[in-house]
Amino acid sequence: DPNVKLQTFGGTSLLYFACRRDFINDSNIDAAMDVVKAIYDAHPEAIEDNNIASGIQRYHQQVQTFINSELVFARQAKDLRLMNTPDENGRLPLHTALQDNVRLGSIKLLVKGNPSAIRSIDDSGALPLH
What are the b/e assignments for 68-85, b being 16+ CB within 10 Å? Predict the structure, then answer.
């Protein structure tokens, strides 16, 4: 549902609600992680919600690990210098992220951070999406 990103629970984002430990335990962590990842991919900007980062210690360990790994891309996407500076192989962060098969939500954040990166050719002549 494309409107999933508009849904809130008690004034918080759906992603924050799904991450909360009081709904997740070791017996349902696999299903819970599938839900958290699906929500993130649908609306990755929700990861920037201050409630998510500030409450991270209250999440299940696997949720903490996931959120921390995806926050890297959210922060990267906000750094215009980093988003526009190629590495030693001429690759922008989008090239590297796609090569590393990162989550769709992270790709969305990187494209939003540098839309022109989708047309940027690296030193081997490859586009990020090829």
Answer: eebbebbebbeeeeebee
- Among 70, 62, 49, which residue's Cα sits nearest to residue 21? 62
Which pair of tokens denotes residue 129? 């999406």
Record the tokens describing residue 122, joined without a space. Answer: 């690296």
The SS3 assignment for 8 reads strand
Neighbours of 41 (CB within 10 A): 15
pTM of full prediction above 0.85: yes
Over residues 80-109, the mean pLDDT reads 96
Structure tokens, 2: 């494309």
- Residues 4-24: pLDDT tens digits? 666 667 778 889 888 887 778
